[in-house]
Hints:
This protein has 295 residues and is α/β, with parallel strands linked by helices. It has a single domain (7-259), classed as Rossmann fold, CATH 3.40.50. 32% of the residues lie in helices and 15% in strands. Helix 4 (103-112) crosses helix 5 (157-164).
Amino acid sequence: MATKFDLKAFDCPAENTWCPGCGDFAILRALKLALAELEIQPHQALVVSGIGCGSKLPDYMTVNGFMTIHGRPLAVATGARLANPELNVIVVNGDGDSYGIGGNHFVQTCRRNPDITQIVENNQIYGLTKGQYSPTSDKGLVTTTSPSGAIEQAFNPMAIALAAGAAFIARAFAGEPRHLAQLIAAGIKHRGYALIDVLQPCVTFNHVNTYEWYRQRIYHLEDEGYDPSNRESAWLKAHEWGERIPVGVLYRTEDLPAYEEEVRALDGGTPVSRLRELAQQPRPEQYEPLKKRFA
């Protein structure tokens, strides 16, 4: 992916504390590549995150950032998009933050279709809290808190998103950052909610779903003449997991309006545009009483 401007615009001096080899590094790189390709300046983007290893991503790049409480980034991102549609709003959080404690927000965001892009760092483990199994862990996975193996069926984000009405559903692999960057860029350009589930190895706590494990199984939908507009085909691909795992755009439709397009309260302008207009046309009678209160 050829970028339009220098990636160094997104560099940040903060010390990175991710484990060497973590898939989060590739996700950070891919996000920078996508923003640069779309010529989105740091001040034009907002990255909202939750709690978890990967949710520290806004700390490691120069961009507007907001770290929420556990499981709440989609709600905050939706509010930010409603307040200021000029921002490119991107959510970056893990499988536990999104599909676990944030599961209800995930489903409601799929059906509401706000114009935001969500990148889920799906490593099938809770890395920050030392290796407990997560909603997407395969049944039987042995972890620090499941010595006999996880007993629940794994959460299927592709199928849940499709059933909930999401208009853009994609899956990527952290071992292919340039392909991931292409999917992120496509998600940002999509009008409405875009989910990009990233298969991301945790090199410290998940020794099953490794880079090599994924490389032996993933295949690219675009290489097989797949039609992402076919909802029935997308449903079948959403359930394909095991010996073959599809990556790419599973489903996409442009037929749904974005959530903010139907919020009538915004017909007279967004909160940010109204504040900007007020700042350009100050009315002293509005400020004098306030000034007196704080005199």
